[in-house]
Design a protein that fits this description.
With 154 residues, this protein is mainly beta. The chain is 14% helix and 50% strand. The chain contains 1 helix and 10 strands. A hairpin with a 2-residue loop joins β9 and β10. The radius of gyration is 22 Å and the shape is globular. The protein starts with a helix and ends with a strand.
């Protein structure tokens, strides 16, 4: 027959596990995409299938550029806690910007205004036409992808 102390242990362990699970379910993380020198416009959610056939949503922007135009793209990691109105900047696990090197040139930039929560790229449009710039990142175990469809004037 369990004693009073053992009864509390039997209840306390599952209750503490439940509390931990609720904390995990109650938070999320993503990236906020900023543009400097370019208007990203309004984001659209595009539904695609992942490698396992599940529905996944990718955030997509449509951008118009001029040939020779330089601009900066910033992906800032953000963590959101349950019950909190906004998110807090958070260092991502990983992230990279992918682009067509025939259409864009990566340009060195001053790193001082940026911090470890941001993944930054500075690009210059080299040619006219349509292209895709992608950001793929991971933050708190969440894989995220953002597409920027560009149309550069000839």
């Amino acid at each position: 027959m369990p004693t009073q102390l053992n009864s509390w242990r039997l209840v306390g362990v599952p209750a503490s596990l439940l509390f931990c699970v609720v904390l995990v379910w109650g938070s999320s993380a993503t990236f906020i995409i900023h543009g400097v020198g370019v208007d990203l416009g309004e984001a659209k959610a595009i539904e695609v299938k992942d490698s396992e056939g599940r529905n996944q949503y990718i955030t997509q922007f449509q951008v118009k550029l001029e040939r020779g135009q330089s601009f900066t793209l910033i992906a800032q990691g953000m963590a959101y806690s349950k019950g909190k109105a906004g998110g807090d900047p958070f260092e991502p696990d990983s992230g990279e910007w992918l682009f067509d090197k025939q259409m864009f040139q990566a340009i060195p930039y001053d790193k001082k205004p940026y911090n470890k929560t941001m993944i930054v790229i500075h690009l210059k449009a080299l040619r006219g036409g349509q292209s895709l710039i992608q950001f793929k990142g991971r933050i708190l175990g969440y894989d995220k992808q953002f597409d920027i469809v560009t149309q550069t004037s000839k």
